[in-house]
Amino acid sequence: MDRAVENKLTHVDVLIAGAGVSGIGSAYYLQRQCPGKTFLILEAQESFGGTWLTHKYPGIRSDSDLYTYGFSFKPWTGAVVATAGEIRTYLREIMADNDLEKHIRYRHRISTAEWSSTAQRWTVTATRGDTGEMVRMTANFLWMCQGYYKHEQGYTPQWPDMDSFKGQIVHSQNWPADLEYKDKKVIVIGSGASAATIIPAIADQCAHVTMLQRSPTYYATDFSAQALADELNALNIEPAWFHEIMRRKVLINEGIFIDRCMNDSEAVKREMIDNVRAHVGDAADVETHFTPSYRPWQQRVAFVPGGDLFKSIRSGKASVTTGEIARFTPKGIELKSGEVLAADIIVAATGFDLCVLGDIRFIVDGREVKPADTVTYRGMMFTDLPNLVWVFGYFRFSWTPRVELVAQFFCRLLNHMEAKGLHSVVPHLRPEDQDMELRPWLTPDNFNPSYVMRGVHMLPRCGSKREWQHTQDYHFDHKAYPAIDLDDGALVFG
Ligand SMILES: Cc1cc2nc3c(=O)[nH]c(=O)nc-3n(C[C@H](O)[C@H](O)[C@H](O)COP(=O)(O)OP(=O)(O)OC[C@H]3O[C@@H](n4cnc5c(N)ncnc54)[C@H](O)[C@@H]3O)c2cc1C
Fold first, then answer.
1. pLDDT for 470-485, tens place per residue?
2. Ligand 1 contact, 379 CB (< 6 A)
3. What digits encode the pLDDT tens for the residues 418-451?
């Protein structure tokens, strides 16, 4: 773009995409650690919270503890897990305490980002949701906090004869506020965290709820650090200490558990299934319905606090069926086994459509760069995409500890560039990296939920060396990131 025209546009040092937990946490660090930098947050939706604004199904809650899902800088004082509303209140307080709201532009969906090496800045085009107007602005850096799935709608597989069903079909991600499920027969398709949350939340009011799954999921019922929480509570420890101690304890417990899932998976599998058996009793055949075929943590473990899902099953208000759908019928679902399930409402809790970098089109010096053609630098930057950092949290640990690690790294990088008078940075494979084996972002033997596998071809590739991977390992990153040598040649400055 012509430099004279560009100069008239709003310009900021850093443009943050998305006002979910990642965008708000990143803005907090930017303001604290790079106080001179100007910034804006562009958010497609009408308010903040991302995931916790989008999802409105009954019972919507975290399945992480809030000591690690909450930020290290703001103590969590509520229950171990939190509702979407409580998480938004927590984020609202962070925004108020740090005067962040004035930096956010809601209803601004970014569609294109164009980098000019001559101007050494990004020009971003966004569409306003309220007026439809196209807005352009420029930024030296993009901080991509747009999450990993499409917020507009969830993923619904297309089954034969769906149109023939006379009742209502809804997706858990687009839950209608006026959905009337009282005294209705409901089928919830899926058995992940969303299904496991919705079922106990609605079962008492429905005539019956059937959890229909193609294959079983792992469930955890207890908070691993409850004993310590009880002890600290008894000692009347002040909130900041309580939060920090719990946070450290949970991160250690999770590291040990993840390690056991990898290296002692049969024992962990037995323990988890025995735990389910103890909760569900004779109300369901554990072998058929609660014995996954994969290793624990190869897909997300769903947390069902106190085993509430199993209480619903024991009460008879809910049941579980495992099988493949043959087709929908006017009155419900017929399985390939021939079994027929009756329903007034069918809820597809069938996951997300993965979305990489907010479905934004990236153009670098006139050439389109597809994220899938790049190689990631530590899961947060990409070859061929200058002055851009991406926040992709942890799947097995809480998402947010990584928001903080990436933020601290990026602020250090910004300050380093400022001090040296540098304007651009882009990762580049060094001579010693050239022969490195390149792999998909995630391999199925490591983590393979359907939504990741459906979209893995859209994600950047990673390498065999840790500098070129998203390790998914908090304890590694926690040590490695503060020690990253910015001048080791993997980052090329201009
Ligand atoms: C129901 C549910 C429960 C979950 N529970 C947990 C949990 O307990 N623990 C855990 O660790 N993780 C959990 N997750 C994962 C969760 O997504 C992350 O924890 C976290 O909320 C991600 O935050 P984020 O800000 O990176 O992304 P999001 O929450 O996805 O927010 C991204 C924001 O960016 C905006 N955006 C996207 N594209 C654009 C664009 N082009 N232009 C402008 N704005 C854009 C979106 O509108 C959205 O508001 C859960 C996910 C779901 C769906």
1. 999 999 999 999 999 9
2. no
3. 999 999 999 999 999 999 999 999 888 888 778 8
The last residue of a domain, from among 295, 314, 348: 348
C-alpha 42 to ligand 1 mean position (Å): 14
Q: Which two tokens stand for residue 163?
A: 């149109």
| Atom 52, ligand 1: residue with shortest CA distance | 51
Smallest CA separation from ligand 1 atom 6, residue? 62
- Report the alpha-carbon distance of residue 380 to residue 181 in Å, rounded: 43
Q: Which of 42, 51, 61, 69 to mutate to test the pocket of ligand 1 (most atoms within 8 A of CB)?
A: 51
Give 18-64 pLDDT, tens digit per residue.
999 999 999 999 999 999 999 999 999 999 999 999 999 999 999 99
Q: Which atom of ligand 1 is nearest to the CA of 64?
A: 8
| pLDDT given for residue 8 in this prediction | 62
20 CB within 6 A, ligand 1 = yes
Planar angle of CA 66, 442, 428, nearest 5 degrees: 105
- Our answer on whether the CB atom of 109 is closer than 6 Å to any ligand 1 atom is yes
The domain boundary, picked from 321, 348, 375, lies at 348
pLDDT, one tens digit per residue, over 71-84 is 999 999 999 999 99
337 with 323: CB under 8 angstroms?
yes
Residue 149 per-residue DSSP state: B
User: What's the 456 CA to ligand 1 centre distance in angstroms?
Assistant: 18
Give the range of the structural domain holding residue 219, as residue numbers without chain letter: 162-348
Report the alpha-carbon distance of residue 57 to residue 204 in Å, rounded: 15
Q: Is the minimum distance from the CB of 145 to ligand 1 under 6 angstroms?
A: yes
- Distance in angstroms (rounded) separating the CA atoms of residues 209 and 473: 37
Both 309 and 169 in one domain: the answer is yes
